[in-house]
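Name: DUF2953 domain-containing protein
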Amino acid sequence: MLARLFGTVGALSLALPRWVLERWFEFWLQRVFVDSTGCSVRPRAFRVARAGGSLAVTVGFERRGRLPAALLVGLLGVVELLAPGTTAKCGVRLLFETPEDAEVREWVRPAVRAKGGLLLLFARSGLRRKRSRETSTD
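Structure predicted for DUF2953 domain-containing protein:
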């Protein structure tokens, strides 16, 4: 069930029009930074969102390709759990154009760590579904 939920969220990120994603990124831009003056969303942020959606759909619904996708999601989850500060900095640099002195809020690191735990749960759920289908077809 968790893998399907993950896939559904991914499908939404693929299906949403660009203007909705723009508003979504602007919403987070205002909440992630202490002072968002001079910050803007990078154009590649939309491609990153679509790629993440594709990965989520693969883990949630696909039969072929689920194992590598679930392993990748699990690896991202481990990295986010072990190094939330570094992961947050990389994500900020990937998605937003910011001044050098832009500072993220204190809640971002714990949120990244929690997201890493969720990614591990989703990856485990996707792998478990794959194994249960393989054993039921034997």
